[in-house]
Design goal:
This is Pectin acetylesterase. It holds the Pfam family PAE. It is found in: Secreted, Cell wall. Helices cover 28% and strands 16% of the residues. The protein is an alpha/beta fold. It has one domain. The structure holds 2-acetamido-2-deoxy-beta-D-glucopyranose (3 copies). The site of one 2-acetamido-2-deoxy-beta-D-glucopyranose has 6 residues, from loops. One 2-acetamido-2-deoxy-beta-D-glucopyranose (NAG) binds next to helix 12.
Length: 419
């Protein structure tokens, strides 16, 4: 157990606690996942006997020539663990989360971290949750070929630009192209089944790249996509401002993303709105699963109650611990949840799609064992996340799960509360 904790913590892969007060919305790039050191409480029921499999980093070959580089120009990379047995021809491509950057200052900051440079990436990472190679932890995907794509472009794999003066590369698009070519070459070309998934900013990437991913595979391949905590909602913050819109506008402009956005969306909405999942998901042809906490802790902290919108700090207790919110604050969050449910309406009606919207205060639930599948992992009507995703992928029935409103769900981990 100690060892598991140690490795997860050291590598910063378990993302629970916000970096307290360090990254403010208006000053810095937005972290769409968090690191933390206080994971012991939430790690209790991870199967302590099972040894976590560590998987090495593969850097993309000839990355410079192919333009498949991180913000700082270093090669982009991924971690690959081969499939076996009945999973040998199945592929899971899972995209890490990270932050978006839309100005020199925040991008220069990112390029000195693992989310902007492979120089700072862990050489090995633990494969847990949806990436686990153990049937007891990951019953449907454990023996698939599993890939974790590292996030280092600051733009959900959409940018195609550079800023020579600041020595910044925005090559999300080229990273994606090179990655897919290399994976096809490594055997994904003959995949029988494939799932493109991702968490947070990577969950948004899974939405952007879903149909394209499907089109790169054989017609006979069963291809689906899963977005975990990628449903960032266009919603006014507590001061009435649209802070996330402002950030997206900057990112799109700075990284030259407009031409990469889907045409169907651009015909109807402006480029900024076309960076929001809610305007993208309905036209997607491949089956898509939206997994999100209705009280997504990142969105609450960085989009609904950013420090810029709350100069007096009257939300500061509530934003980091939902149990400390007063009735009117909860009411605001209920309005947010209601909006989310409504925005998912037409999408949910499409038979091919799946939804798991649980009334928890968390962010990213596929990567960590204790939210994906463990004795006390979150569930809606007794269905845990790994089971819901597997049932949807393999069409075993019941793919739409929308929780009752807070505080009815007693299975939540609400990790951020434990700060
Ligand atoms: C968490 O992130 C902060 C800011 O990037 C960094 O200074 C700190 O070392 C990180 N902690 C861990 C445990 O990775
Ligand atoms: C970690 O959690 C324990 C138990 O709740 C608490 O006593 C401790 O102060 C926490 N440590 C940090 C660094 O937050
Ligand atoms: C609840 O919090 C809000 C926002 O911080 C504040 O304006 C309001 O006065 C509080 N309400 C009560 C009843 O304390």
């Amino acid at each position: 157990m100690k060892k598991i904790l140690w490795s997860l913590t050291l590598f910063g892969v378990i993302l629970i606690l916000p970096v307290n007060g360090v990254m403010e919305f208006d000053k810095m790039e937005r972290f769409t996942d968090f690191n933390g050191t206080n994971v012991s409480q939430t790690e209790k029921d991870v199967n302590s006997k099972a040894k976590v499999t560590m998987v090495g980093l593969t850097l993309i070959k000839n990355a410079g020539l192919r333009g498949a580089v991180c913000l700082d120009g270093s090669p982009a990379g991924y971690h690959f663990h081969p499939g076996s047995g009945s999973g040998a021809k199945n592929w899971l491509v899972h995209v890490e989360g990270g932050e978006w950057c839309g100005d020199i200052r925040s991008c220069v900051h990112s390029k000195k971290t693992r989310h902007g440079s492979s120089k700072y990436m862990e050489k090995q990472i633990p494969f847990t949750g949806i990436l686990s190679d153990k049937a007891s932890e990951n019953p449907d995907f454990y023996n698939w070929n599993r890939v974790k794509v590292r996030y280092c472009d600051g733009g959900s794999f959409m940018g195609d630009n550079e800023n020579k003066d600041a020595q910044l590369q925005f090559r999300g698009k080229r990273i994606w192209t090179a990655l897919i070519v290399d994976l096809l070459w490594s055997g994904m070309e003959y995949a029988k089944q494939a799932l493109l998934s991702g968490c947070s900013a990577g969950g948004l990437a899974a939405i952007f790249r879903c149909d394209e991913f499907k089109n790169r595979l054989l017609h006979s391949t069963r291809v689906k996509c899963l977005s975990d905590a990628g449903f960032f909602v266009d919603f006014a913050d507590v001061s009435g401002d649209r802070s996330l819109r402002n950030l997206y506008t900057d990112v799109i402009e700075f990284q030259s993303i407009t031409t990469q956005l889907p045409n169907e969306c651009l015909k109807v909405y402006n480029p900024t709105l076309c960076f929001f999942a809610q305007y993208l998901i309905v036209p997607i042809k491949a089956p898509l699963f939206i997994l999100n906490a209705a009280y997504d802790s990142w969105q609450i902290q960085e989009s609904l109650t950013p420090k810029s919108a709350d100069p007096s700090g009257s939300w500061s207790d509530c934003r980091s611990n939902i149990a400390k919110c007063n009735a009117s604050q909860i009411k605001f969050f209920q309005g947010f949840r209601t909006r989310m449910v409504k925005l998912l309406g037409d999408f949910t009606e499409q038979r091919k799609n799946g939804v798991f919207l649980n009334s928890c205060f968390s962010h990213c639930q596929t990567e960590r064992q204790e939210t994906w599948l463990s004795k006390n992992s979150p569930a809606i009507k007794n269905k845990r996340i790994a089971v819901a995703v597997g049932d949807w992928f393999f069409e075993r029935g019941g793919a739409k799960h929308i929780d009752c409103a807070y505080p009815c769900d007693k299975t939540c981990r609400n990790e951020v509360v434990e700060r």
